[in-house]
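Annual report, structural modelling task.

Input specification for the nicotinamide-adenine-dinucleotide complex:
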Amino acid sequence: MKGITVLGATGSIGVSTLDVLRLHPQAYRVVALTANRDVAGLLEQCREFSPQYAVMADPSAAQQLAEQVRAEGLNTEVLAGTEGLEKVATLPQTDYVMAAIVGAAGLLPTLAAARAGKRVLLANKEALVMSGHLFMQAVREHGAELLPIDSEHNAIFQCMPRDYRPGMEAKGVRRILLTGSGGPFRDTAVEQLASVTPEQAIAHPNWSMGRKISVDSATMMNKGLELIEACWLFDVGPDKVEIVVHKESVIHSMVDYLDGSVLAQLGNPDMRTPIAHALSWPQRIDSGVAALDMFSVGQLNFERPDLQRFPCLRLANEAIRAGGTASTILNAANEVAVEAFLEGRLGFTGIAQVIESCMQSIILVAADSIETILDADAHARQMAMACIDHPEQHRAT
Ligand code: NAD
Ligand code: MG
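The model returned the following structure:
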């Protein structure tokens, strides 16, 4: 029986995780569930899974949840804030931590889980993008097991030789082929991108996901963040990762070997597959996902990404090459810009412009401590807000 903490339990990944856990009550026990503000959602999950702890990041939401839990006589202790999140990520009775908080808010609890030597099921790619060096160091030093949930990285992990770290070349790997659907605007005329709406941007053709990652998929910043994520997870430079647009989202990524073999992982686009894989690795369990029907898939297509249409991809590439706090700045500026876009305060093409302005004007430093990373994150957020409020003063050149 493995004890599980689900960080971000009420989100898209969190709910899919609980769907898989529900199928295997003999193998996994839910120790803790967390959410930001969704009291009703977390309460419902507490009724079903009876976790020992429930954490709400928002203190007033935590108070409301605590009252409800008491009123219903549930056997769950309610905690609040980052402290509560870090506590449930490091409990001795927790073996596995699903890191499924969205954005920078997930960094500290996810890092805490790595430092506590847990099996970390990493969906929260932003944590790794912000602090790749520090995070991977924590994993190594504390003997944590890091299993990727992002479907592409999970696919790459499945196609890699068993002991690829460090130096996958020595194991015969030539490069990684990172696939992406191209999002909802793959074929939209470039002139029309400036006027697309949040509703259009979050309507992803193949995947059902949270709002932030859906917008990231529409700008292809998601693929940019995934490029950075792949470099850290698999210990390779960006030159060894090629992005391939594959609109069907049936192949979830590939590994190209020196002998000419290319291994791919395929499946229906459903996050329960990588979740079940990471939960049970190195075994396999049922995920509830239907078998892939190759006859109804019929065709698989591949294209080069269009950097003109998707400047965020170029920016992410520049950030990983620049090193230091560049990826932290990229991530923070993106989070602020995406939120502004979703609230109607910034146009779709403004997202890349805000990020580029921040990357041009903030001086990079070595990303060697959590304080430096959090400072760079805060600085980039301030700068991004200024770019959005006063675009005329902060144009990228
Ligand atoms: P979501 O918005 O659906 O859910 C986010 C979860 O995080 C919710 O439980 C929310 O309560 C919690 N949360 C939000 N802000 C918080 C804060 N400030 N403090 C604490 N908790 C907070 O997001 P999602 O789509 O499930 O994505 C979660 C993560 O997984 C992201 O990093 C995303 O990039 C990654 N991911 C998601 C998918 C997918 O299919 N949804 C695929 C690959 C990777
Ligand atoms: Mg992905």
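Residues 370-389 form the longest helix (20 residues).
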